[in-house]
Amino acid sequence: MKKQVLFFISALVFFGAEAQTSKYIKGGVLDAVEITSSSTETYASYVPANYDERKKWPVVYVFDPKAAGAEAIKGFISGAEDYGYVVIASNIAKNGDYQTNFRHISRLMNEVNDHFSIDPNRIILSGFSGAARLAAASAVLSKNISAVIGCGASFDVGGSYMPVKNTFMYVGVIGDEDFNYIEMLEGVNYLDMRKFDTELIVFKGGHEWPEEEYISKALRSLSVKYMAKGLQKRDDVLLERYYQVDYEEADRLLKKGDLLYSYDAFETMIENFRFFKDVDPVKDKLKEIKRSNLYKAQLSEYRRIVQAESLYRDEYYSFLPGDIELGDTRNLTYWSEEIEKINDLANSPKMENKKMAKRLRGLLAGLAGAYEKQLIPETHAQNLLFVNILYTILLPEEPAPYLKTVQFATMMGKYDMALYYLEDLLKSGYKNIKELDNLEGIALLRISTEYNDLLTKYDLKTRY
């Protein structure tokens, strides 16, 4: 199967008919363009206002974890217009089976080659979260992909599609509160050791598609790299403009006191522009930053956080899957203690500790959620009870885990436990009696005296 997919995607160097205007609007988005060979598959398209099919254009294929291509494409429009990229966002490819997605991507890319004027040497894949891993996996298979822009996650770490050979450039874009932040750092470091051409862009935010300015920065960097590799015609006017934009961004970080990110931004400039102009002024900036005590302090704090968070992550990955599979609620004592450590970090005066707390909380919730999706209530009630009690500790302000805990505890005949978590929910001020009345699977609990006494205690109307 793997060889077949490789053949499908490798065949994409061939081109078909001239572009047809029904597939795009210059300077505008079409959000549900049908794939000619499959009327059930669609994509969103954007081409710059000056798009001309007589020349070849670089293309970015965008994948969203929920196949929300029409929504995901919005973040690419500004950069596509400024730097001259065609953008195609799938409304089909999403988190899920790789082989199925590879077939979707193959049909999509063949369709685009038939109807758009695409440069085969400048094909970029991009995605967010699980779809970022899909983008990287597709690049590993195809060999015709020039670059990957991975947002919110890196690649298939330790899996069949982990990058090994340096066949594409990689730009990672990640929020500093994203639970995949450490994964991205480790992924970029791994690619650096493998001699990939990499770049890392960090923004202030969580697990979300980056705002358009960061995607634009990624596209701008790739344009410079394409000129350096001879894949795009050198344009000194554009290069100077790109240089000035990057310099101003790096200098703005310096003036804000974000010396660590400023250093990285200036260092990336040297790598990108050293073939085109004198970068000694940028090197001088690096020397200036490196002498700063603030930079040394920020670097030391960064190293401390990465080391500490990596240990937490290793524990979570090592123990949580087994505990969920076992479903023994006595093991929740350990996780309660771990979450208390996260709460201590969240209450720390140090901003980096607070960010780490958000990332660790997100990681635990994400891991539990991933395993929860694989569980069937009829056969995994004990495991689902474990997961939802964990959620009540991790996300105490959310009512849904309490309600599910009441459901699964009742299903297992653990009425005292169901009443305990129901009272915990009512103590928080929960008043949605209609939701309680419609909660499935608790009929036996609902008719009990203890249940109705509990509702009366918190001034809620009882059914019986």
TrEMBL record:
Keywords noted in UniProt: Hydrolase, Signal
Q: One GO molecular function term?
A: hydrolase activity
Q: Please state the span of the N-terminal signal peptide per the UniProt entry.
A: 1-19
| Species of provenance | Zhouia spongiae
What is the protein name given in its UniProt record?
Alpha/beta hydrolase
Transmembrane stretches, by residue range?
Answer: none
* Entry annotated with the keyword tRNA-binding: no
Q: Which InterPro entries match?
A: AB_hydrolase_fold
Superkingdom of this protein's organism: Bacteria
